[in-house]
Design goal:
Blueprint: H1 2-6, H2 12-31, H3 44-52, H4 55-71, H5 78-91, H6 152-162, H7 166-173, E1 175-180, E2 184-189, H8 200-212, E3 218-223, H9 230-250, H10 253-262
Parallel strand pairs: 2-3
Antiparallel strand pairs: 1-2
Helix pairs in contact: 2-3, 2-4, 4-5, 7-8
Amino acid sequence: GVQRLAEKSPDFAALLKDLLLLLHRVALLQAVPDAWQPAWGEREPFEALAAAMHPEETQLYYQIALSGQRDLPLAPDAQSGFEMILLRMLAFRPAEVSQAAPAPTTHPAPTRSAAAPAGERPAPAEAPPADTTTAAAPAREAPAEAVRLEGAADWYALLPRLGLSGMAAQLASHSVLQSWDGHTLVLAVDASCASMLGTRAEERLLEALRCELDAGLRLQWQQGGADDTPAARQQAAQAQREQAAREAMASDPLVQALQERFDGELDPESVRPIQS
């Protein structure tokens, strides 16, 4: 694990760069196998990775690692920053969708009526009595409840209903609502995910929005102004939980007594909130 790796005092920034190079070569093998260069070393380990990973998964991991290069210097330490990048890859791993084949429909074999005796004409079937009652009109389905989209809070509440995963979920969580007029949805995207526009991730997001909001929905993007994204809210909430945990630990009488008894100090970065 990362802890065993940390015992060797590695350069985590260099490790992250090596991870990006590895993912780049795996992606090349998946898309253009002939692009492999002998100078890169043995090909077999990379081919094994290319076969084990879905191309969308490779692209997602590369995007997360690329964004992680920017975030790594901001982490409390390089090891925890590197761990968070790996955890983010696991959290946004694309879900495997298995499509079950529909069960075959069986039709009962037609039954033959008993043959009439020879020379005897079958009696004509009596016509059913005329139904004088008026056929009931088919019941109309109740119109779907309109989805309210007026601000960032409504966009935040909508995301779980879209059922997104992988890169599409990351793109949605790093975007924020600008406007919705019932036909055109305008979103602002964070700069870290702007490279996902025009990819399969955007297509999947558009498909989910059309299923949830309107079949003819148009999606427009703005770059900049994506401050109150769901991802930013989650990070802020996590930071608040961590701060509350540190304050609770620092004010705990037992912790204070131990500090006085052993002349110790509490490391705030070692305090983590209990995950519910």
